[in-house]
Hints:
mainly alpha; 62% helix; 0% strand
Amino acid sequence: MFVGALRLLDACGGPGCPVCQCLAQDSRRHLDGLLYELVTDPDTRRRLRRSWGFCNWHTWMLLEIPGARSGAAIIYEDLLGRLVERAREDTAAPARRPSWLATPSRRPGDGQPRQTCPVCEDAAASERRYLRALLEGAGDAEVQLAYARSDGLCGPHLLHALAIGAGSAGASWLAERTAVKWGQIRDDLAHFVSKHDHRNREPFTADEAAACERAFEALSGARGLFGNDLHPPRS
């Protein structure tokens, strides 16, 4: 298992999808290191110009990092200057209007659309390693015990894992164990609904009270980690 596997096993002891939690932690570390060490690095600045900064998720994550505002201000002052220039260029030549600030696109004729958020690129590589660690750990007692303690993978991450490990014993093990966990959440949701009957006098358990949040994450992943469908990427 890769070096981050210990973080994955630790995350299994916390709430929510353990891979979602690891990716959020990894992203904060990435941003913290970038803002602390690389704000004035020429290569880093060029990369951020090509991606127009970070994605929505990682941009707002900057506010969660202590002391991040000064470094973020340096980066975004530069980006806003370029944004002003680009807006004026497009106003002067509206026919030449590529998706320069939209979701990264590979369509020909789009000029130079923005590149992928650099933190997302790093997270995508880590995501695959975490999922492979779970798939390959199906026969590992430590991994099995850790996953038993967890809330299980979210839907998006289980589907990704099944695609990576298609046909493997690890995929079957992971799907079976995760389905059981989702069933438990569904049972807690049903009890939560039934206890809203005005005749009920039985209090909610902690699991029932948190059932909606747990169901949200099971279906959609952790808050902010996956995109929305408001502006889908163009094929």
